[in-house]
Protein backbone atom coordinates (compact mmCIF):
# COMPACT_ATOMS: atom_id res chain seq x y z
CA UNK A 1 0.00 0.00 0.00
CA UNK A 2 1.25 3.46 -0.90
CA UNK A 3 1.10 6.02 1.88
CA UNK A 4 -1.15 8.99 1.46
CA UNK A 5 1.89 11.27 1.28
CA UNK A 6 3.29 9.15 -1.58
CA UNK A 7 0.00 9.30 -3.49
CA UNK A 8 -0.09 13.09 -3.16
CA UNK A 9 3.50 13.28 -4.37
CA UNK A 10 2.72 11.06 -7.39
CA UNK A 11 -0.36 13.06 -8.39
CA UNK A 12 1.48 16.38 -8.00
CA UNK A 13 4.30 15.08 -10.16
CA UNK A 14 1.82 13.81 -12.75
CA UNK A 15 0.16 17.24 -12.91
CA UNK A 16 3.55 18.91 -13.38
CA UNK A 17 4.51 16.39 -16.11
CA UNK A 18 1.18 16.86 -17.90
CA UNK A 19 1.71 20.63 -17.80
CA UNK A 20 5.17 20.35 -19.27
CA UNK A 21 3.89 18.05 -22.04
CA UNK A 22 1.21 20.60 -22.81
CA UNK A 23 3.77 23.41 -22.81
CA UNK A 24 2.17 24.95 -19.76
CA UNK A 25 3.55 26.37 -16.53
CA UNK A 26 3.45 23.54 -13.93
CA UNK A 27 2.08 26.09 -11.46
CA UNK A 28 -0.91 26.85 -13.67
CA UNK A 29 -2.97 23.86 -12.51
CA UNK A 30 -4.30 23.70 -8.96
CA UNK A 31 -4.99 20.40 -7.26
CA UNK A 32 -8.34 20.16 -5.50
CA UNK A 33 -8.31 17.11 -3.21
CA UNK A 34 -11.79 15.58 -3.30
CA UNK A 35 -12.31 14.35 0.24
CA UNK A 36 -15.91 13.14 0.15
CA UNK A 37 -16.33 10.01 2.33
CA UNK A 38 -12.81 10.50 3.76
CA UNK A 39 -12.23 10.86 7.48
CA UNK A 40 -10.91 13.94 9.24
CA UNK A 41 -7.74 11.95 9.97
CA UNK A 42 -7.18 11.40 6.24
CA UNK A 43 -7.75 15.10 5.58
CA UNK A 44 -5.30 16.01 8.35
CA UNK A 45 -2.73 13.69 6.79
CA UNK A 46 -3.33 15.32 3.39
CA UNK A 47 -3.01 18.79 4.93
CA UNK A 48 0.31 17.72 6.46
CA UNK A 49 1.65 17.20 2.90
CA UNK A 50 0.87 20.84 2.16
CA UNK A 51 -2.57 20.36 0.58
CA UNK A 52 -4.85 23.29 1.42
CA UNK A 53 -7.94 22.96 -0.80
CA UNK A 54 -10.50 20.22 -0.42
CA UNK A 55 -13.70 19.38 -2.33
CA UNK A 56 -16.81 17.95 -0.72
CA UNK A 57 -20.10 16.68 -2.20
CA UNK A 58 -22.32 15.89 0.76
CA UNK A 59 -23.31 18.91 2.81
CA UNK A 60 -23.88 17.42 6.25
CA UNK A 61 -20.68 15.40 6.12
CA UNK A 62 -18.77 18.44 4.88
CA UNK A 63 -20.05 20.75 7.62
CA UNK A 64 -18.91 18.35 10.32
CA UNK A 65 -15.43 18.13 8.82
CA UNK A 66 -15.15 21.89 8.29
CA UNK A 67 -15.96 22.45 11.95
CA UNK A 68 -13.65 19.68 13.20
CA UNK A 69 -10.72 20.96 11.11
CA UNK A 70 -11.31 24.67 11.58
CA UNK A 71 -7.89 25.36 13.12
CA UNK A 72 -6.13 24.16 9.94
CA UNK A 73 -7.48 27.09 7.93
CA UNK A 74 -8.29 24.94 4.88
CA UNK A 75 -10.07 26.15 1.74
CA UNK A 76 -13.35 24.29 1.15
CA UNK A 77 -14.99 23.77 -2.24
CA UNK A 78 -18.55 22.50 -2.59
CA UNK A 79 -18.77 20.30 -5.71
CA UNK A 80 -21.98 18.31 -5.16
CA UNK A 81 -25.64 18.74 -6.08
CA UNK A 82 -27.26 21.74 -4.36
CA UNK A 83 -30.79 21.75 -3.02
CA UNK A 84 -32.19 25.27 -2.89
CA UNK A 85 -33.22 24.92 0.76
CA UNK A 86 -29.62 24.06 1.70
CA UNK A 87 -27.84 27.07 0.29
CA UNK A 88 -27.35 28.97 3.58
CA UNK A 89 -24.78 26.64 5.16
CA UNK A 90 -22.97 26.50 1.83
CA UNK A 91 -22.86 30.31 1.63
CA UNK A 92 -21.64 30.49 5.22
CA UNK A 93 -18.98 27.78 5.22
CA UNK A 94 -17.40 27.37 1.80
CA UNK A 95 -14.90 29.42 -0.22
CA UNK A 96 -15.89 28.01 -3.60
CA UNK A 97 -18.94 26.35 -5.17
CA UNK A 98 -18.36 24.47 -8.46
CA UNK A 99 -21.83 23.06 -9.03
CA UNK A 100 -24.06 26.07 -9.65
CA UNK A 101 -26.31 25.50 -12.65
CA UNK A 102 -29.22 27.86 -12.17
CA UNK A 103 -29.75 31.49 -11.25
CA UNK A 104 -31.98 30.82 -8.26
CA UNK A 105 -29.19 28.96 -6.47
CA UNK A 106 -26.65 31.68 -7.20
CA UNK A 107 -29.07 34.36 -6.00
CA UNK A 108 -29.62 32.56 -2.74
CA UNK A 109 -25.88 32.06 -2.24
CA UNK A 110 -25.33 35.76 -2.86
CA UNK A 111 -28.12 36.81 -0.47
CA UNK A 112 -26.95 34.40 2.23
CA UNK A 113 -23.22 35.06 2.02
CA UNK A 114 -22.29 36.77 5.31
CA UNK A 115 -21.47 40.48 4.89
CA UNK A 116 -18.08 40.03 6.62
CA UNK A 117 -17.00 37.23 4.27
CA UNK A 118 -15.19 37.63 0.95
CA UNK A 119 -17.22 37.14 -2.19
CA UNK A 120 -18.06 33.48 -2.78
CA UNK A 121 -16.15 32.02 -5.74
CA UNK A 122 -18.44 30.26 -8.16
CA UNK A 123 -18.03 27.99 -11.16
CA UNK A 124 -21.03 27.29 -13.36
CA UNK A 125 -21.47 23.58 -14.00
CA UNK A 126 -22.10 22.98 -17.70
CA UNK A 127 -23.70 19.76 -18.95
CA UNK A 128 -21.10 19.63 -21.71
CA UNK A 129 -22.10 16.21 -23.03
CA UNK A 130 -25.83 17.11 -23.01
CA UNK A 131 -26.68 14.03 -20.94
CA UNK A 132 -30.30 13.74 -19.98
CA UNK A 133 -30.03 13.05 -16.25
CA UNK A 134 -26.93 15.12 -15.65
CA UNK A 135 -26.63 18.31 -13.61
CA UNK A 136 -25.38 21.44 -15.33
CA UNK A 137 -26.80 24.17 -17.51
CA UNK A 138 -26.92 23.64 -21.25
CA UNK A 139 -24.37 25.24 -23.54
CA UNK A 140 -27.19 27.37 -24.97
CA UNK A 141 -28.21 28.67 -21.53
CA UNK A 142 -24.67 29.46 -20.42
CA UNK A 143 -24.03 33.00 -21.74
CA UNK A 144 -27.17 34.50 -20.20
CA UNK A 145 -26.71 32.61 -16.92
CA UNK A 146 -23.08 33.70 -16.68
CA UNK A 147 -24.02 37.35 -17.18
CA UNK A 148 -26.72 37.19 -14.54
CA UNK A 149 -24.53 35.43 -11.98
CA UNK A 150 -21.59 37.75 -12.61
CA UNK A 151 -23.83 40.70 -11.76
CA UNK A 152 -24.75 39.39 -8.30
CA UNK A 153 -23.22 41.00 -5.20
CA UNK A 154 -21.14 38.74 -2.89
CA UNK A 155 -20.39 36.40 -5.80
CA UNK A 156 -17.22 36.24 -7.86
CA UNK A 157 -17.84 34.24 -11.02
CA UNK A 158 -14.56 32.38 -11.57
CA UNK A 159 -15.23 29.80 -14.24
CA UNK A 160 -16.81 26.64 -15.55
CA UNK A 161 -16.96 23.10 -14.21
CA UNK A 162 -17.69 20.02 -16.28
CA UNK A 163 -17.96 16.26 -15.83
CA UNK A 164 -18.10 14.75 -19.33
CA UNK A 165 -19.87 11.47 -20.01
CA UNK A 166 -18.08 8.29 -18.97
CA UNK A 167 -16.31 7.12 -22.11
CA UNK A 168 -13.23 5.22 -23.22
CA UNK A 169 -13.04 7.46 -26.27
CA UNK A 170 -10.18 9.84 -25.48
CA UNK A 171 -10.79 12.01 -28.51
CA UNK A 172 -14.42 12.50 -27.55
CA UNK A 173 -13.32 13.40 -24.03
CA UNK A 174 -10.74 15.78 -25.44
CA UNK A 175 -13.39 17.48 -27.57
CA UNK A 176 -15.59 18.01 -24.49
CA UNK A 177 -12.77 19.66 -22.55
CA UNK A 178 -11.79 21.71 -25.59
CA UNK A 179 -15.31 22.99 -26.04
CA UNK A 180 -15.42 23.97 -22.35
CA UNK A 181 -12.20 25.94 -22.75
CA UNK A 182 -13.68 27.69 -25.80
CA UNK A 183 -16.84 28.58 -23.88
CA UNK A 184 -14.73 30.19 -21.15
CA UNK A 185 -12.68 32.09 -23.71
CA UNK A 186 -15.85 33.42 -25.34
CA UNK A 187 -17.23 34.72 -22.04
CA UNK A 188 -14.00 36.20 -20.75
CA UNK A 189 -14.02 39.56 -22.58
CA UNK A 190 -17.36 40.34 -20.98
CA UNK A 191 -16.62 38.83 -17.54
CA UNK A 192 -13.00 39.52 -16.62
CA UNK A 193 -13.10 37.59 -13.30
CA UNK A 194 -13.27 34.33 -15.27
CA UNK A 195 -9.99 32.45 -14.85
CA UNK A 196 -10.92 28.90 -13.87
CA UNK A 197 -11.57 25.69 -15.78
CA UNK A 198 -12.52 23.06 -13.20
CA UNK A 199 -12.15 19.87 -15.21
CA UNK A 200 -10.33 16.58 -14.95
CA UNK A 201 -10.60 13.87 -12.30
CA UNK A 202 -8.43 10.85 -11.39
CA UNK A 203 -9.05 9.08 -14.71
CA UNK A 204 -8.76 11.96 -17.17
CA UNK A 205 -6.69 14.74 -15.66
CA UNK A 206 -3.98 14.40 -18.33
CA UNK A 207 -6.48 15.09 -21.13
CA UNK A 208 -8.07 17.93 -19.14
CA UNK A 209 -4.69 19.57 -18.51
CA UNK A 210 -3.77 19.26 -22.20
CA UNK A 211 -6.98 21.17 -22.98
CA UNK A 212 -6.45 23.95 -20.45
CA UNK A 213 -7.78 22.83 -17.06
CA UNK A 214 -6.69 25.18 -14.27
CA UNK A 215 -8.12 23.08 -11.43
CA UNK A 216 -8.32 19.29 -11.36
CA UNK A 217 -10.62 17.59 -8.86
CA UNK A 218 -8.95 14.39 -7.71
CA UNK A 219 -10.23 11.85 -5.20
CA UNK A 220 -9.39 8.20 -5.83
CA UNK A 221 -5.85 8.78 -7.12
CA UNK A 222 -5.02 10.57 -3.86
CA UNK A 223 -6.98 8.68 -1.21
CA UNK A 224 -7.58 5.26 -2.79
CA UNK A 225 -10.95 3.62 -3.56
CA UNK A 226 -13.87 5.39 -1.93
CA UNK A 227 -15.98 4.18 0.95
CA UNK A 228 -19.67 4.31 0.18
CA UNK A 229 -21.15 7.77 0.79
CA UNK A 230 -22.75 8.31 4.13
CA UNK A 231 -26.49 8.87 4.15
CA UNK A 232 -27.31 12.54 4.72
C1 LIG B 1 -16.03 12.46 -6.67
C2 LIG B 1 -15.81 13.61 -7.58
C3 LIG B 1 -14.53 13.87 -8.12
C4 LIG B 1 -13.33 12.98 -7.89
O1 LIG B 1 -13.42 11.81 -8.62
P1 LIG B 1 -12.22 10.73 -8.65
O2 LIG B 1 -12.55 9.92 -9.85
O3 LIG B 1 -12.30 9.98 -7.38
O4 LIG B 1 -10.96 11.49 -8.81
C5 LIG B 1 -14.40 15.00 -8.91
N1 LIG B 1 -15.43 15.82 -9.17
C6 LIG B 1 -16.64 15.60 -8.68
C7 LIG B 1 -17.75 16.55 -9.00
C8 LIG B 1 -16.88 14.49 -7.88
O5 LIG B 1 -18.12 14.27 -7.41
Described by the principal axes of the CA atoms, the overall outline is: globular
Q: What characterizes the major β-sheet?
A: 8 strands, parallel
Mean pLDDT: 96
Helix content, binned percent? 25-40%
Task: State the end-to-end CA separation.
Answer: 30 Å
**Regions with little confidence, pLDDT below 50 for 5+ residues:** none
Tell me the structural class: alpha/beta
What sequence of helices (H) and strands (E) makes up the elements? HEHEHEHEHEHEHEHEH
Bound molecules: pyridoxal-5'-phosphate
Give the name of the CATH architecture: Alpha-Beta Barrel
Beta-strand residue percentage? 15-25%
Kindly report the name of the CATH homologous superfamily.
Answer: Alanine racemase
* Rg measurement, Å: 17 Å
Number of E-state strands:
8
Any descriptors?
single chain, 232 residues, alpha/beta, TIM Barrel, 8 strands, 39% helix, binds pyridoxal-5'-phosphate
Please characterize this protein's 3D structure:
- The structure is a single chain.
- This protein is an alpha/beta fold.
- It has one domain (4-223): Alpha-Beta Barrel (TIM Barrel), CATH 3.20.20.10.
- The chain contains 9 helices and 8 strands.
- It has helices at residues 4-21, 40-48, 59-68, 87-93, 103-112, 142-150, 170-187, 205-210, 220-223; strands at 30-34, 53-56, 75-78, 96-100, 120-125, 155-161, 196-198, 215-218.
- It has an 8-stranded parallel beta sheet.
- Helix 6 (142-150) links the parallel strand 5 and strand 6.
- Helix 4 (87-93) crosses helix 5 (103-112).
- The protein is globular and about 50 Å long.
- The two termini are 30 Å apart.
- The model has no long low-confidence stretch (mean pLDDT 96).
- Pyridoxal-5'-phosphate (PLP) binds at residues 34, 36, 57, 79, 163, 201-203, 217-221.
